[in-house]
Amino acid sequence: MPDKEIADTETGARAKGRPSSGRPSRRALLTAAAGAGAAAVFWVPRAPRAQAQGAPLEEGGIGGTGAPGVTGVVGVLTDFGSLRVNGLTIETSDATEALDAFGPIPGAALALGHSLSIDAERLGAGGAFSARRALLAQPLIGRAEEISETSLRVMGVEAVLDPGAPRPPALAVGDRVAISGLWRGDRVAASRIDAARNTRFSVVAGVVSPRERDGLRRIGAVSVRMDDAEGAAAEGRYVTALGRWSPPEDRRSLRVERLVVGRFAMRPSALSVEGFLEPIAARPFFRVAGLGHSFDEDLDLRAFAARRTLFTGPYARRYAPTAATRLPEDFATRRRALAAGTLEALPIP
Fold first, then answer.
1. Confidence (pTM)
2. Which residues have C-beta within 8 Å of that of residue 192, sequence separation ≥ 6?
3. Residue 285 has pLDDT above 60, yes or no
4. How confident is the model at residue 250 (pLDDT cuts 50, 70, 90)?
5. How distant, in Å, are the alpha carbons of 77, 79, 134, 261, 299 from that of 104?
6. Measuring CA to CA, which residue among 304, 299, 300 is closest to residue 278?
7. 3-state secondary structure of 17
């Protein structure tokens, strides 16, 4: 079996890509940058685990001191007129790179409810930002296995549509779908469901677990098969894994063929993160599901353990948010409240 490639999107380097065709709509304004992907490709050698190239940097692969003025924004698109994510106004330009798991996309492809990870630079002191890069970070892409009025199952994982979220198109079992949203334990809180644009690969995006007793790893709640060196390089980090979902007669798992490590092209010095907490054994005993970064161990996060929450604050090797805002579960209500700025940000002890 040939070595699999790992592309690390947190290096800030660029890989070869194709220019996007077509112009963006006036609402969206984003374009895929000509000749740009956002990943530097390197090969993980077949070496013992301790010698594996690209061993995880501290805190989900970012590590070190972030670039001044750069904020990593992780959340759901709630409005246009620039991009509105987490209540932030994020300006775009022809230099903004837009991409998904398969490569560059036109800005017009972005829609309400899409889950995004954005490299944003602050524009002066007015509270606005400029997007260098916008990643459409969809946790699950694959065939719909079960469908109900409010949920569906992809690669064994249940995706539950947020109340008030944009309704998906008519779906049938076997259709290939792309699910936007946030990990919530072993499920996905889905903010939008689209038809998948790629029929070759299934995709899962989330944090890679240590190797488990069955010899597999987990990304989110999806069982995945990857070689030892690849797993050692990715463990504990946020990744987007592309591969083939095994048939029922085989052990149900995603056979990874390509792995993209990281959410951001730059090291942020601050984070704005919408997500759900999940328990862990180490202090402060919680992390944001699917994020790949750890909180400062001295924080007290218990008050936010059961709710969708927006965390904001500095990042330097550990995430040390200074404020947390509890968000409504209903998508339409959340959208209106973020636009109006009526939600109260609470200090984190």
1. 0.82
2. 111, 112, 113, 114, 115, 165, 166, 168, 179, 180, 181
3. yes
4. low
5. 18, 21, 10, 17, 38
6. 304
7. coil
